[in-house]
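Structure in, sequence out. Go:
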């Protein structure tokens, strides 16, 4: 994966994905997204927390601009090539790209984006695809796609709307403006902002706190919380009963 600019490290129950092309501000290509999907498919069973971070001054400058060039970058898709696939083919290809992002929401793990500097376009969407975001005080979120004639299509629009609401999401995306650390926390885009040199420790502390909870209870609770907005109160109450029944029976069966 080193040639793609990704590193994957596992330390006990914590896995870390490192975007590792700092010289290109961790710009992402189709190969990045395939590699992310493979990491998700092969995630070791003991992993409970997945940290996504970027090497160097920026989390990620988004789509590698060489993908706009007719030939793309060696061995990887160019937008021009993907555009020739036709509607069905294009959508199938983007569905493959999206697989690299979607698994980060799995209920049996908690994903944390550690974000410093620029998180632009695909970089912002990768941060949004994580459950939680801890940011450095120099963070600069920017959804640049509409300014480039594109839409955000790497699974970022739903979490953005859920976090900030439709009006604010429209304003952020259609102006392609930068959102800094204080505003990100105020809008709920980030759980916490810390000085840059404290980012790694803040993420480690959060991971440690998350790991203190029983795994089965954490998984069931995350499943409940994720489903809440799509259910009525009655349906959510029923879902709570069902999850609790499984929990209580498991606890008493094992004691
Ligand atoms: N693709 C490829 N290379 C990039 C890049 C990108 N997105 N962003 C930065 N780089 C490269 C630069 O070309 C430069 O390379 P060289 O040293 O070889 O010239 C190197 O990274 C450092 O860049 P800067 O000198 O510009 O660094 P900076 O810290 O001053 O600025 C930046 C950082 C603000 C991120 C700026 O580089 C920038 O604006 N980059 C482009 C961002 C962009 O438009 N991304 C596309 C988002 S849209 C998207 O992501 C679409 C989608 O998913 C569908």
């Amino acid at each position: 994966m080193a040639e793609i600019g990704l590193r994957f490290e596992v330390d006990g129950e914590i896995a870390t994905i490192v975007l590792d092309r700092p010289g290109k501000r961790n710009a992402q290509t189709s190969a990045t997204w395939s590699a992310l999907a493979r990491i998700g498919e092969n995630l070791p069973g003991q992993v409970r927390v997945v940290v996504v971070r970027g090497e160097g001054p920026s989390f990620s400058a988004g789509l590698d601009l060489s993908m706009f060039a007719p030939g793309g970058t060696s061995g990887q898709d160019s937008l021009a090539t993907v555009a020739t696939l036709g509607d069905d083919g294009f959508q199938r290809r983007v569905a493959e790209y999206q697989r690299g992002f979607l698994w980060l929401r799995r209920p049996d793990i908690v994903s944390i984006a550690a974000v410093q500097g620029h998180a632009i376009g695909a970089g912002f969407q990768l941060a949004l695809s994580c459950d939680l975001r801890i940011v450095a005080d120099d963070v600069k979120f920017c959804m640049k796609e509409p300014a480039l004639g594109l839409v955000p299509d790497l699974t970022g629009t739903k979490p953005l709307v859920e976090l900030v609401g439709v009006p604010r999401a429209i304003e952020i995306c259609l102006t392609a403006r930068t959102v800094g650390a204080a505003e990100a926390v105020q809008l709920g885009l980030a759980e916490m902002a810390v000085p840059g040199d404290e980012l790694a420790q803040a993420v480690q502390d959060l991971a440690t706190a998350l790991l203190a909870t029983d795994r089965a209870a954490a998984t069931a609770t995350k499943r409940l919380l994720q489903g809440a907005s799509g259910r009525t109160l009655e349906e959510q109450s029923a879902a709570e009963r069902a999850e609790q029944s499984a929990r209580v029976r498991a606890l008493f069966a094992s004691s």
